[in-house]
Design goal:
The chain is an alpha+beta fold. It contains 2 helices and 6 strands; from the N terminus they run βαβββββα. It has a single domain, classed as Thiol Ester Dehydrase, Chain A (Roll). 29% of the residues are buried.
């Protein structure tokens, strides 16, 4: 079976640094696969917060994750600081993709690439909602 490819854009909207905690490390002694999605969520939350939003309130609607892809490139270990770049792509009426590039700050090695599919969601009606124009504007500037 061929390996999954995840192409990244040339431009990222946001970058943040996250130090790996002991709870991010698995029994193999390196970054665990479950922690990679948590790191992506942390970076997404920081991006949203930088615009005054949260996952529960992006200009009046929330977000839910519909799918995820992780491509591992190298190991990372306890105490490593990852620089996580955030991009938004494939903007549709109801959702988009968040793309993440995780790079070890000390070595410069790429650790992982992540894509999470997002749908905007009205938690009051329990139904998908249109992408807020303010969000679209930030992502297309």
């Amino acid at each position: 079976m061929p390996r999954t490819r995840l192409d990244l854009p040339d431009r990222f909207l946001f970058s943040t640094d996250v130090a790996l905690r002991v709870s991010d490390i698995n029994y193999g002694g390196h970054l665990g696969n479950d922690a990679v999605l948590a790191l992506a969520q942390e970076a997404r939350m920081r991006f949203l917060k930088s615009h005054g939003w949260s996952e529960q309130d992006v200009s009046g609607v929330g977000m839910i994750m519909t799918d995820a892809v992780v491509v591992y490139r190298s190991e990372a270990f306890y105490g490593d600081v990852l620089s996580i770049d955030v991009a938004v792509a494939d903007l549709q009426q109801l959702g988009c993709d968040f793309l993440f590039r995780m790079v070890n700050k000390a070595s410069g090695k790429e650790v992982a690439r992540v894509k999470t599919g997002i749908v905007f969601f009205d938690y009051a009606t329990r139904k998908p909602a249109p992408m807020p124009e303010a969000f679209r504007a930030v992502c297309t500037q």
